[in-house]
Amino acid sequence: MIKPKYKLFFLTFLLIASYLRPLQSAEMIDPIKVDWSFKGLTGTFDRAALQRGFQVYKEVCASCHSMQYLSYRNLGQPGGPEFSEQEVKAIAASFEIEDGPDAQGEMFTRPGRPADKFKNPYPNVQAATAANGGAYPPDMSVLVKARKGGANYIYSVLVGYEDPPPGVNLDDGVYYNKYMVGNKIKMPNNLSDGLVEYSDGTESTVDQMAKDVTTFLAWAAEPELEERHKTGVKVIIYLILLTILVYLSMKKIWSRIDTEV
Amino acid sequence: MSDQEYTPKSKAGKWFNDRLPLLTLGAHLTDYPTPKNLNYWWTFGGILTFCLITQIVTGIVLAMHYVAHADLAFASVEHIMRDVNYGWLIRYIHSNGASMFFLAVYIHIFRSLFYGSYKSPREVIWIIGLMIYLLMMAAAFMGYVLPWGQMSFWGATVITNLFSAIPLVGDSITTWLWGAYSVDNPTLNRFFSLHYLIPFLILGLVVLHIWALHVPGNNNPVGIDIEKPSKDTVPFHPYITIKDAFALLVFMIIFAGFVFFTPNVLGHSDNYIPANPLVTPAHIVPEWYLLPFYAILRSVPDKLGGVILMFSAIFILFVLPWLDTSKVRSAVFRPIYRQFFWILVIDVLMLGYVGAMPAEGIYLVLARVGTIYYFLHFIVVMPVVGYLEKTEPIPMSISEPVLSGGADPSIARKVNDKA
């Protein structure tokens, strides 16, 4: 007697939900859906895309955006871009990192080490804001998790620059973006075809660079993703097997009495 | 509280048991006569105990790495996610565990509402349960503040500001709660302290909850009193333990699905933006499990009125055993109440839905209708239906599912009174 009631309340709920759907957030269009390799239950990152994405980040984004929660050593970790140890050391050493104070109380700079955090382009948030026309370029460590729509949204914004439609006036240093919330963005369109030279010979179109750097950012936000997916599959298989065993045991135990379980 | 005398077999056991009867307690818990017709809705008590223990264990580990400081909290959470061994797993279990805890508690509460488990002689179990629920909400709210993201900060601001609605002393109370003139580092610090304290208070109340349960024994889907032990009961172990274990494992599969494959789907993306007192998010929404109350709060144009109504929505549940006038416990035999029960379920789901939407237009209308109906259900429907309803025939015992003869609740009443 309960089952039809379930149907009733789910149907009612769905009806209400579907009726209300179109009313919400009319000002934002849905981001482009990309078939990312890291989606799904067994999704993994494309190693080459991560390495290319890091190159785009380093050569284009890093001049304004920090990634303060990442260390250079992360670039060599399993599940990430997986640069070799030598490559990670070389990447780290290419940055001058401030350290100190030394025995004389002076700050000094030295070549970076794998244990160092990614170098910030600006000394503090205020400096970053002032240098970018009053808009702070957000830290990109967890950016993919911090935006509704995630990787699809980040990618869409990167390729979503357009001329403003008639009637939309933009101030100096403000750009029109189809996918940005509110359509106005202070980051100029920094990607153009052939901007970076990929060492693996991939053609650096805007679309390719946008996808690569978004993949890199998705990894940066969830460096545990591959391990999480792998462990998750094992855990669930284990739990299902155990559930079956416990179910059979339960049936056996309850067969001693006349009640169904 | 023991049902029969228990004597340990070994000499040492007897010596110890004479001084502290833990073995008697163990024997009581093992033999505890449980109605044999409990369905799977009754497995959520065990599931909730599992949830509490999981939250405490993962929480203790997280606290070893977390830093309760406004400048460091966000970074320390990222440190847990990136640098602590399996830190991501522990944190995701803890954050999704809160949601699973509430999912289970809502099923547990609605099970009680359907089968009349709150009614005499189980009022005290019900009231202790509600106290646990209140503490859970406090713990969950404070826990959500700890990562010090945008939703943490603004959620804390909205909720603590509710107290400023109290006439005369409201502002002073709010300042006292904050330990500052806005939500700031002292607020975060005390929330961490309380967030660590509350689960242990809950644990203590859970012990009382189970103790109070073991006095009259479990209610059951038929809702009649049964003799214990009898052919209507089974010993808790192994019958109920194995059944609870099976249900728990199914629950854990769903839990693991969230943790490993969509760990952030129940959270809000804004909470991965560090707290910024200068930037207000477009929509401040609490976690999903608080949304129905948030909808009630926002449905009232007056701040104080909204706060009173929101708290009333919870406190009205405390007097529920006395608002329900029906002599029959289980809704299985209450054809009218049964309909209203499902309307209430839909009403609460709808309130949760509109709680997540902006408080304007159709949402505001729905929130108001939902709020009014919520209170009508408890204040009008429950007492009136209890009086007027003609209930269906009630079996004399679990083993005889249908009472022979016509519908006469008074027979069942006699059975109820006898026990």
Task: Kindly describe this structure.
The complex is a heterodimer of chains A (261) and B (419). Chain A is mainly alpha-helical and 261 residues long. Chain A has two domains: 23-70 and 117-222, Orthogonal Bundle (Cytochrome Bc1 Complex, Chain D, domain 2), CATH 1.10.760.10; 224-261. Chain A has helices at 3-20, 47-59, 85-93, 125-131, 150-159, 206-221, 225-254; strands at 96-99, 108-111, 175-176, 184-185. Chain B folds into two domains: 32-221 and 228-267 and 274-279, Cytochrome Bc1 Complex, Chain C (Up-down Bundle), CATH 1.20.810.10; 285-391 and 405-419, plastocyanin oxidoreductase (Helix Hairpins, Orthogonal Bundle). In chain B, helix 3 (44-65) runs antiparallel to helix 5 (87-115). Mean pLDDT of chain B is 93; it is low at 404-419. Chain B has a two-stranded antiparallel ribbon with strand order 1-2. Chain B is 63% helix and 1% strand. Chain B is globular. Chain B is an all-alpha fold and 419 residues long. The two termini of chain B are 17 Å apart.
Helix content of chain B: 55-70%
In angstroms, what separates the terminal alpha carbons of chain B?
17 Å
What is the number of helical segments of chain B per DSSP (H or I, 4+ residues)? 16
The helix/strand class of chain A is mainly alpha
CATH architecture of the largest domain in chain A: Orthogonal Bundle
The tally of strands of chain B reads 2
Report helical residue fraction of chain A.
25-40%
List the helices and strands and how they pair.
The complex is a heterodimer of chains A (261) and B (419).
Chain A: H1 3-20, H2 47-59, H3 85-93, E1 96-99, E2 108-111, H4 125-131, H5 150-159, E3 175-176, E4 184-185, H6 206-221, H7 225-254
Antiparallel strand pairs in A: 1-2, 3-4
Chain B: H1 11-19, H2 22-31, E1 33-35, H3 44-65, H4 73-82, H5 87-115, H6 123-145, H7 150-161, H8 170-178, H9 185-214, E2 233-235, H10 236-261, H11 291-298, H12 303-315, H13 320-323, H14 335-355, H15 361-388, H16 409-418
Antiparallel strand pairs in B: 1-2
Helix pairs in contact in B: 3-5, 3-9, 3-10, 4-5, 5-6, 5-10, 6-7, 6-9, 11-12, 11-14, 14-15
